[in-house]
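Pilot study result, target chain (226 residues):
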Amino acid sequence: MDDFVIECHNMTKVYKMGAVEVQALAGVSFTVQRGEVLSIMGPSGSGKSTLMNLLGCLDRPTAGEYVLDSEKVSNLIDDQLASIRNRKVGFIFQSFNLLPRMTALGNVELPMRYAGVTKDRGSRARQALESVGLGDRMTHRPAELSGGEQQRVAIARALVNIPSIIMADEPTGNLDTKSGKEILELLLNFNRVSGTTILIVTHDPTVAQQTQRIIRMRDGLLDTGA
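Predicted structure:
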């Protein structure tokens, strides 16, 4: 029996800009198996960022259905979306999005604070940082860390709540080649060890080629190459 962590059925997204309607997604359908590593590619304006926002429960589709980890989320209100997002999705961003005044440990604890976790919060955050090779940098603030180290903190933050899926938006985009390779290998190894589904939005074909499947977007649709 198929075990899908993501099911999208004819999802559309229309943005209203005054009297003008812009269709960012024009009916997208696909599934993602639990434990899969896949990438989303496409030129600017193709709809990949809109798709990422919908899959990460940052927004709702205008029409169609989205099922995340067996929960229908298409029509949920904002508070419900936020709850599912915090429980089921770990985010990694190109710009790291760390809070500058907090230590690495404090940044990794944040998702647990939002989720109301009190038990073992500190030890879980420390374990997450150790798992990405930052056991000796926990008390450092972002400005005291290299770009690669900051992205490792972001990865630890993404995985600390044990999400159903990790969504990485250009995770190597702000890094030098060596650090980028290390970050990608860290993500791929985490998938091998934990079986967590990983979805990567990227412009870099060398990154995409290391995932198990590539979803290509064009003009708000999946690009089948036809």
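One observation from the pilot: The beta strands are 4-17, 20-33, 37-41, 63-68, 71-72, 89-93, 165-169, 197-201, 213-218, 221-222. A full batch analysis is planned for the follow-on phase.
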